[in-house]
């Protein structure tokens, strides 16, 4: 086995209703160079303190469960490596801008509700039966939306978005990226419906182009791009009202 | 959320970028005044030029050049995030390419303008 | 305790559960549907499936070919009526996903592209780069939001199945955030909780893959079928077990040993063509490839890594461009976790536990032997995988049998009587009592992780790629011992809110039951077939005369399971020789 080194994890602990205020608890651990922050937390939970609470599952940066603030920045714990935070201590906190449910677990129901409101399904531009087979979609048409479909709903972008932190009514980066994903899909015909949300108070105009959402995205989705493309679309649709024949 | 922008260097850079914007707007007014003076005749225009040649204005210009350079740099840095994907020969143009092209265009335009001013129109 | 009344309750929000929910909702908008998941549905482990999903697509392909590949791949332990139904319905399900927006990879003309996969005669694997499961799951989850009749219970942990007078009538769930119990009464129950790979040490599975649904049914008298068949995926990351998709090889990647030699040619899989030949070499079935690794290790021809022996998965000849386009996630995993660029260097890999072939036995209608209970996905033993699953059949299975489960449960629910609330309430109170009892124990005792790690190690030792009677017996004994130790485990966390230590203890109880069924089923099958290979004298070959049948492990209170047997359904393919590579081709030529 490879050599082990030492680092102290400094983890935020808080249980609403039980703790008076969040506290930081220190856990010294030994680690090997290939160990992720998630593995460090698991080591603590398994062998030191079973009450330390965090979400995790796939371990390979695809399920989106283990987003947390690691050394002050939103990251997936399974894809952040302990070796990169020496000498420590390494501060681990729950994602910013979300209510804490317990320790590193935050309440993301606000996002899931928003996801439900962007019409996150295809409303066919042209109906097609199963017998007629698949819609034709060229690689170029796929390319127009594919990267926006890579969102794993990990919430790092919401933790990175100061506008969402200031006013959580903002639809936010991931939901807008997914909205844009459907709006840019050649098979879809519900653009007008989704644009109502884009143009609304909670829509894209709350964004001030900080751009940190795209920096922290572990899947290179570039939600800032989705938001800003929709600002253009929103502006165009506003001016289009004044064109003759558009009433 | 108080003081949120001090929490991360990324936010500090963002606030710096936003802080440069009023200077850009203010200088647009200065230039607008120049155009208005030009419209009012040669004397008015000369007067405006002379005012800008004062020590105070020269110091201000030196500071403004630095501010504008930063603004230009960050503006092109954010540009790829604000525009639809540019597809060249079937491949999406990388954001770095767009940023570099923008900054290069700004530098070239500034140089061209400077040469024009320094050596006069042909 | 709160009571929720619905028509159909679905446990598990992965691919199968979501597909079932949509099918039930679409079949009758009046039905009330509850979808219970211990994680948000998009976290379910379907998300980690990479390579693709099978469906006969090309003109030169046929349902017959897909049927034959599946049945021979399963070493003739498949129920052929289920396989027939399955191969007939894969294509329409893939098209359905396409209509719902799944971003399938395309050909230049806009049609869906297909790739080669292990054990498949012709390219028929639909794929979305190497994120197929991810895209299928998110497409299904987002599409499910279209149906207001689906009421989701996200982050609710199911701790018991309610049965009254021989029919399934609901479940007991714990709201993870509050620790509060609810009883969900339903006229039909669908279990879609996925596999149980976490009972093994090195595995590709997410932390949530703990066999909950299998154990829930098992404890209520439903036997578990073919549990001895665990699939080892041949190309996983040593240590963590993270998966490098079979599509790596479908696209042309090769496996070499420490001498740079394509060792698979020594195990009846040759010839070693430079191009990917179907059903040969690296495109052989997973059981054969994992077994070849075991032999290479024995011969001392593997590569030493800090996490044990490995071989090399070499993707270099695919080139940077194809790798980025077809296998982006593989590149990311190799880079982030191993510091390797697959375009520049080979990736060390080894076999790890990947898929649970066995599970809750179901018929072609996904009905389990308990009226009102249906099962779909990895938790079910639908009969299509037999003794070894072919890659890309399981994602298709989620859709084909997920839809059937939704429709059949909806049909059953319309005719079934209302659940007996009084009797079930008593059962639910008991379930709460035993779950909460874990928290009421005095402090002290062993750590949960100690037991979990001992279980996983024992399963690896007695349930490996090759198995030996004394080791299997030791594993059975160990699992029994751990089951006895479980009630004395120390739970330091006494909180009601988000008590994941407590839930992990309940999960470990599920895992030990499933592990017990696996270990005893393996011991009872005195032959070698598919993923169950024995080294014991006289048992190293397939024995159709005595063992062309399914094992059925039935739960026995405080004792080892009773092992029974059931017939394999054979409709048109009598057991034959399972040959791959050149031998397989000449055999197919002789037959057809």
Q: Please, what is the average pLDDT of chain B?
A: 90
Radius of gyration of chain B, in Å, reads 19 Å
Q: What portion of residues of chain C is helical?
A: 25-40%
Termini separation of chain C (Å)?
63 Å
The helix tally of chain B amounts to: 4
What pattern of helices and strands is seen along the backbone of chain B? Answer: HHHEEH
The assembly state of the depicted protein chains is heterotrimer
Could you explain the architecture of this structure?
The complex is a heterotrimer of chains A (247), B (122) and C (592). Chain A contains 9 helices and 7 strands. Chain A is an alpha+beta fold and 247 residues long. Chain A folds into 2 domains: 4-106, Beta-grasp domain (Ubiquitin-like (UB roll)); 109-240, Fumarate Reductase Iron-sulfur Protein, Chain B, domain 2 (Orthogonal Bundle). The model of chain A has no long low-confidence stretch (mean pLDDT 95). Chain B is 79% helix and 3% strand. In chain B, strand 1 and strand 2 form a beta hairpin. Chain C is built from 16 helices and 24 strands. In chain C, strands 7-3-2-11-19 form a 5-stranded parallel sheet, covered by helices on one side. In chain C, strands 13, 14, 15, 16 and 17 form a 5-stranded antiparallel sheet that branches. A 4-stranded mixed sheet of chain C has the order 1-10-9-8. Chain C is globular. At the A-C interface, helix 1, helix 2 and helix 3 of A face helix 3, helix 4 and helix 9 of C.
Layout of strands and helices, then pairs:
The complex is a heterotrimer of chains A (247), B (122) and C (592).
Chain A: E1 4-13, E2 23-32, H1 37-47, E3 67-70, E4 73-76, E5 90-93, E6 100-102, E7 105-106, H2 109-117, H3 139-146, H4 156-160, H5 162-166, H6 173-183, H7 191-199, H8 212-216, H9 223-240
Parallel strand pairs in A: 1-5
Antiparallel strand pairs in A: 1-2, 3-4, 3-5, 6-7
Chain B: H1 9-40, H2 42-52, H3 55-82, E1 87-88, E2 91-92, H4 95-119
Antiparallel strand pairs in B: 1-2
Helix pairs in contact in B: 1-2, 1-3, 3-4
Chain C: E1 2-5, E2 8-11, H1 15-27, E3 33-37, E4 53-54, H2 63-73, H3 80-99, E5 114-115, E6 125-126, H4 132-144, E7 150-154, E8 156-164, E9 167-175, E10 180-185, E11 188-191, H5 212-219, E12 224-225, E13 230-236, H6 247-250, E14 254-256, H7 286-298, E15 303-305, E16 308-314, H8 319-326, H9 328-338, E17 347-356, E18 360-361, E19 373-375, E20 380-381, H10 393-415, H11 421-440, H12 448-462, E21 466-467, H13 469-485, H14 500-524, E22 533-534, H15 544-547, E23 549-554, E24 562-567, H16 581-591
Parallel strand pairs in C: 1-10, 2-3, 2-11, 3-7, 11-19, 18-20, 21-22
Antiparallel strand pairs in C: 4-6, 5-6, 8-9, 9-10, 12-23, 13-17, 14-16, 15-16, 16-17, 23-24
Helix pairs in contact in C: 1-4, 1-10, 2-3, 3-10, 5-14, 8-9, 12-13, 12-14, 13-14
